[in-house]
TrEMBL record:
Keyword field: Heme, Iron, Metal-binding, Oxygen transport, Transport
CDD domains for this protein: Mb-like
Highest taxon listed in the record's lineage: Bacteria
Family from the record: Belongs to the globin family.
Protein name from the UniProt record: Globin domain-containing protein
Organism: Pseudophaeobacter arcticus
Domain Globin per the UniProt entry, residue ranges: 1-135
Length: 143
């Protein structure tokens, strides 16, 4: 899917009247931890804080879609943070699957194959850039 069409569908679903982030975010984490129970130990136990962080990240990513430089800055920060948490590519895959299936349930009739493709493409791009930035960042001194 062409990048502009992808952006349009991602933004449209975020701006949908059906999109209720207060419902989506807890449902997403519940699904993620069901399909990837080992991920539960990686994340903070304070779910309110965890939910606030992903809400902020989603907001910043959506606002930065039109600026590659700004988007890369956000993804660099997120990539480094997730590297320190030892998030793997497998975790990213389970994140994407849980995210899109939860989003499909929330959006209902507004969800389509094109919307799923756009979100999957966008989230894979995000994961790839986060991994790239995390790998290019020095791990720090080893004693």
């Amino acid at each position: 899917m062409e990048a502009n069409a992808c952006k349009t569908l991602v933004l449209r679903s975020l701006e949908s009247d059906r999109m209720d982030l207060d419902t989506f975010i807890p449902a997403f984490y519940q699904r993620l931890f069901e399909v990837c129970p080992e991920a539960r130990a990686i994340f903070p136990t304070d779910t309110a804080r965890l939910e606030a962080k992903i809400l902020a990240s989603l907001t910043h990513l959506a606002e930065a879609l039109e600026s590659t430089e700004r988007l890369d800055g956000i993804l660099m920060k997120l990539g480094n943070m997730h590297r320190k948490m030892e998030i793997s590519d497998a975790h990213f895959g389970q994140f994407i699957s849980s995210f899109t299936s939860t989003l499909a349930a929330i959006l209902g009739s507004e969800w389509s194959q094109d919307t799923e493709e756009a979100w999957t493409q966008f989230l894979r791009f995000v994961a790839k850039r986060m991994s790239f930035f995390a790998a290019s960042e020095p791990a720090g001194e080893v004693f």
